[in-house]
Amino acid sequence: MGTPSYNQLGIVKRHIERADRTAAEALGRFGSATVHEAMGRVGLLKPYMRPIYGGAAVSGTAVTVLLHPGDNWMMHVVAEQIRPGDIVVAAITAECTDGYFGDLLASSFMARGAKALVIDAGVRDVRTLTEMGFPVWSKCISAKGTIKATIGSVNIPVLCAGALVHPGDVVVADDDGVVVVPASDAVRVAEVAARREALEGEKRAKLASGVLGLDMYDMRGPLAEAGLKYVD
Amino acid sequence: MGTPSYNQLGIVKRHIERADRTAAEALGRFGSATVHEAMGRVGLLKPYMRPIYGGAAVSGTAVTVLLHPGDNWMMHVVAEQIRPGDIVVAAITAECTDGYFGDLLASSFMARGAKALVIDAGVRDVRTLTEMGFPVWSKCISAKGTIKATIGSVNIPVLCAGALVHPGDVVVADDDGVVVVPASDAVRVAEVAARREALEGEKRAKLASGVLGLDMYDMRGPLAEAGLKYVD
Amino acid sequence: MGTPSYNQLGIVKRHIERADRTAAEALGRFGSATVHEAMGRVGLLKPYMRPIYGGAAVSGTAVTVLLHPGDNWMMHVVAEQIRPGDIVVAAITAECTDGYFGDLLASSFMARGAKALVIDAGVRDVRTLTEMGFPVWSKCISAKGTIKATIGSVNIPVLCAGALVHPGDVVVADDDGVVVVPASDAVRVAEVAARREALEGEKRAKLASGVLGLDMYDMRGPLAEAGLKYVD
Amino acid sequence: MGTPSYNQLGIVKRHIERADRTAAEALGRFGSATVHEAMGRVGLLKPYMRPIYGGAAVSGTAVTVLLHPGDNWMMHVVAEQIRPGDIVVAAITAECTDGYFGDLLASSFMARGAKALVIDAGVRDVRTLTEMGFPVWSKCISAKGTIKATIGSVNIPVLCAGALVHPGDVVVADDDGVVVVPASDAVRVAEVAARREALEGEKRAKLASGVLGLDMYDMRGPLAEAGLKYVD
Amino acid sequence: MGTPSYNQLGIVKRHIERADRTAAEALGRFGSATVHEAMGRVGLLKPYMRPIYGGAAVSGTAVTVLLHPGDNWMMHVVAEQIRPGDIVVAAITAECTDGYFGDLLASSFMARGAKALVIDAGVRDVRTLTEMGFPVWSKCISAKGTIKATIGSVNIPVLCAGALVHPGDVVVADDDGVVVVPASDAVRVAEVAARREALEGEKRAKLASGVLGLDMYDMRGPLAEAGLKYVD
Amino acid sequence: MGTPSYNQLGIVKRHIERADRTAAEALGRFGSATVHEAMGRVGLLKPYMRPIYGGAAVSGTAVTVLLHPGDNWMMHVVAEQIRPGDIVVAAITAECTDGYFGDLLASSFMARGAKALVIDAGVRDVRTLTEMGFPVWSKCISAKGTIKATIGSVNIPVLCAGALVHPGDVVVADDDGVVVVPASDAVRVAEVAARREALEGEKRAKLASGVLGLDMYDMRGPLAEAGLKYVD
Q1: Is the pLDDT of residue A1 over 70?
Q2: In the beta sheet, which residues pair with residue D117?
Q3: Within chain A, where are the H helices?
Q4: Which of B27, D205, E54, E221 is the most exposed place for a label (fewest CB within 10 A)?
Q5: Are D208 and D91 in contact (CB under 8 A)?
Q6: Subunits with at least 3 CB pairs below 8 A relative to chain B?
Q7: Selection from D161, C127, A50, A117 nearest residue B50 by Cα
Q8: Measured between beta carbons, which residues in chain B are less than 8 angstroms from residue C45?
Q9: How many CA atoms are closer than 13 Å to the CA of E203, on its beta-carbon side?
Q10: Which pLDDT value is given to residue C166?
Q11: Burial classification of residue A57, based on how many CB atoms lie within 10 Å of its CB (0-12 exposed, 13-18 middle, 19 or more buried)
């Protein structure tokens, strides 16, 4: 949690380099699991981050916000920095389960064009958020409100749920979790993911017809070599 | 968890002072998040308390029961004390995840007029409970049954999921969590919540139209004073 | 977690004694809570094991697999040992939250006739699994993939989520959790469960009509004897 | 955690009724386990509360303080309310692991006559505290500092680590944990504990000589009646 | 947790096959880490099992006891089954943190010749236990006492902290944790551990003199083959 | 956990910029709590990181290593990159409690001049490590060994226990926890810490003499302004 850089508290960075929009959108179509594989199995937020409702699947460019425990003042500051297609990634300087975000802020974020919120803390008004169709991935749900007393920062690199997120990175989130792709690598990862995806359709058909992965992937030799023994 | 008063084990209090019914019903309409704010951000049960199905939203007056780990005998005792409009609040004297409550007890509670169960332990038969439309907020779901061997108490003050609940208090529960309002304060809190709610509709419309919270709440001055700096 | 028998690593047992199919199917109709009671309140997996989607209810015979952290190689080996009506029970030699299983493996498992997966780790592609109607009970959901580098074992006794599962045992899983019945005891437990179930319908009707459990179960005497006191 | 009484934020109660000093001291000699038994097995803080160094054993009268997450301002306010023989019991309005207390505050507390601190959060400077001989029971140890921005309350009833503590109650803390005895009940509990203790010396000698509890407590009959069977 | 065998509740097995005493003692000298390796990296209890004081290192043969949550009645039953050189392994049928064991029971266990207790729950009187020199590995420390109301079983196979323990198995416990060796395999594992240990002295000397593991184990080739790249 | 940079797997960086040695040593004298304050309350690893024995207090320059779950192969690779005065900071790509490090590796690390290990996983041989005087801060202690099968990286930025650590950064660790200071900022932070420390001695003397923090810090006015009320 928190920020990796101690001297950036109280700063709002207005101009950030956003990842290529086409790549960001393409990555969303592959989903978090495929993108995570295409990245080389890194970039994933911890699995305690769950969607507040099932079925949502989004991708977008990160605007980041660093908040203090029990204080959501900077949520209003980050709102102004949102551009259409962005996903707000909120980190807290210490562990906290309070409900930082509800339907009022969601109205504001949607008006600015935000596609989702990813927050390493709690949110509330989840029924209204679900009706509004504004997806959130969070650590928990809590009716506990927050105050507005301490400043944090916007668009600095943050550690959110065990992952480092830079402003402008691509965020891909769905029922399987949330993955972050560095902006500079989005195009390449999208290509790797596309190649991976192309192979999967064919494999799925084979497996569904009863072909075993043991045969399709030629695993019998390596398994025997590794010492696997069949007994009756 | 447990009881705050060591010398009340084995007691069933039959006559309790219930909160004003109109206030209890009004509080339910505002929801747990608004009520929690109107209370001054106290009275909330810990966020691990979750509904067994989404979308339920209730309020009612608490009848309380203190149970022992793995023993649900007192659930039958509390059933008799339920009056229409009550919500049963069940605390355990130690941490326990067993399934204390299922469809049989739910039939009984519903017949007595109970609106919901809030329990700092587990419940089971959740599919049937969902079909019956009897909402439960619990720590977990578990098929593990309990025995009937040790007596506890009914309608004493209990600590449930980190909150002190007196019999007769108002309980408000929905998708955001569970909040408790002291009976003597229910009318006042309902008024505060109503004022708060009245302001929110207008704010929501403004924010949805693109007005920033920064401007609507006049935050730019205080933020600058607190040291917030904008950089490029 | 893990295997109770240190010298069975790297073994695939091809012939296992499966529980009586009729008993296995009957047990599924009673559900995990009733079966757990009929067993004498043992055999339950820990309540952190949750279904990836609500409403699924299955029973079947266990084929077991022991995997290493972050390595799902043996999932392809166990696929070949599945017979129609089986449920795969996957244990890991250490705690792990990775996503061991997704839509490709599910296609393969379904083609082999598997009814479900129970895994003490994570799974992914949960939206697709839901669409396919392949139920999974797991510790968590995670997009994090696994490698194929180390062999484990298939059809040895495993410790899964705090329960010992032998290949061929009956697995009953639904919204309340997962319970395991030893193959040799399946017929007897099914009979106990049937008797139990027969009594419940009548009880439910009585309780729903307003009869109290206190009276239906003749509890007032024992409660008084245990020291319960009613006060005003 | 937190306060059970919503309308007492921002209050310092100067005059509190402290438990009988002789009883408080006597309770300390029996230790937390014996006192907890004498209370009827209630009054215990959760077992995550651990001493920062082994071997400390204290008792005293509670002065309570309710703090906000990450904010230790009220620690200076409570210091003034300490009288010789007191133990400060600190609760937080939300879960927090920050280090609220270190060697400077310990110097102040000791100068006022405090015997210990019990805090449902973190502390720091533990090596210096150990050298100073000021015992602390806490949820964790953390170098993370706190701010001084928000007021709480002093000498109101608080929920600390799952127990309700009123100012003036007796606190008994040692290597086994922390137990709270209501001020009004301290004399009676001390008497029960004394009787209990008197019996234990004799029992210990018998058991150490090889007499079995089975025989000393005449358990063989009840065990057989409960169904216990011996097999070879 | 719990028992793997549903129909063994309420049974005390008097005659058990204990592992070879010489092998049991030899295994203790190697320590839990070496024994765990010699076993093929299985047989370990979960790492939350910690000694109540540092420096203890024991081995012995298991007598097992299965207890109910909050109930230590069977502790007196198992005491009678202890023979000199035994270690009591206590499992609970559900998660529980209560203090099942204190100085009285320790006096009894020591009088019977027990070398230690391993318990998947809490213990108390830890200062006295430390002074008595009776080592315990437990999940936690808690002053909370238990009742004596429900029977369990003695000397049946139990699941303790994630490991299956049969009566008579060798238990090795020290500062690194607790490992269980099947009785039938104790001699073989002791031999493997002895060979392993013999090699370690020489390796330790080489590494201490500055030789790198990279060279001592000839790892540079395999690392390069695996793709490791050195950059400046 | 893990690495923030997806494309650096399988890399060993030989030349890193280490923080100023004098500043690194000075920071160690102030301790983790004071350094954390001097940093502006950032840079701290999560409080679950605990020393394996009390009283150790070190500072040094970080060499980092990224490992896979259950695999300590890279520990031998990082050993070669250690220079006198370094502290090894080990991160894992997923949560893991295995014992990655014992007395053999400690012999090697000490021979290379390492001052300590900080690892977001488990270690073993803790009694021997304590006798050798090699301090370790870890998430847990576990006898469970690891394999050597998969390569990771050395001297890349890693996320360890919630903090971002660059090779060459200053690590300060003691009984209060572990804090990381960016190499480029070590001199400045040491100066801030020195000024802070100078003030503390005087304050401690005042507080020990009975002066209240309320008066020493002139808090009475701000508290009253914040609304604090004294009652009897």
Answers
A1: no
A2: D88, D136
A3: 21-38, 73-81, 103-112, 126-132, 186-208, 213-216, 220-225
A4: E221
A5: no
A6: A, C, D, E
A7: A50
A8: none
A9: 15
A10: 97
A11: middle
Chain A residue with minimal CA distance to B223? Answer: A151
- From C13-22, C51-60, E195-204, the region with the lowest mean pLDDT: E195-204
Given the structure tokens 């005003």, which residue do they identify?
C232
Residues of D in contact with A94 (CB under 8 A): 69-70, 96-98, 144
Query: Residues, chain C, total?
Result: 232
Q: Does F174 touch chain D (CB under 8 A)?
A: yes
CB contact under 8 A, A226 and C150: yes
Provide the pLDDT for residue C40.
Answer: 83
The DSSP line for chain B is ---S-TT-TTEEE----PPPHHHHHHHHHHHHHHHHHHTTS--BPPTT-EESSTT--EEEEEEEEEEBTTB-HHHHHHHHH--TTEEEEEEESS----B---HHHHHHHHHHT--EEEEEEEE--HHHHHHHT--EEEEEE-----B-----EESS-EEETTEEE-TT-EEEEETTEEEEE-GGGHHHHHHHHHHHHHHHHHHHHHHHTT--HHHHTT-HHHHHHTT-EEE-
Find out whether A36 and A189 touch, Cβ atoms under 8 Å.
no
Say if CB A25 and CB A59 are below 8 A apart. yes
pLDDT in tens, C168-225: 999 999 999 999 999 999 999 999 999 988 888 889 999 999 999 999 999 999 999 9
Interface test with B, best of E67, E71, E142 (most B CBs within 10 A): E71
Nearest-CA distance E104 → chain D (Å): 5
Q: Which of B103, B144, B153 to mutate to test the interface with C (most CBs of C within 10 A)?
A: B144
Written as one letter, the residue type at C11 is I
**How much is the average pLDDT of C120-145?**
97
Nearest residue in chain C measured CA to CA from F95:
C96
Query: What subunits touch chain D, counting only 3 or more CB pairs under 8 A?
Result: A, B, E, F
pLDDT of residue E70: 87
Looking up tokens 């200053």, which residue turns up?
F170
- Distance (Å) of CA A210 to CA A198, C107, E213, F222: 20, 9, 47, 75
* Single-letter amino acid, residue D116: A
Q: How many CA atoms lie within 13 A of D145 on its CB side?
A: 19
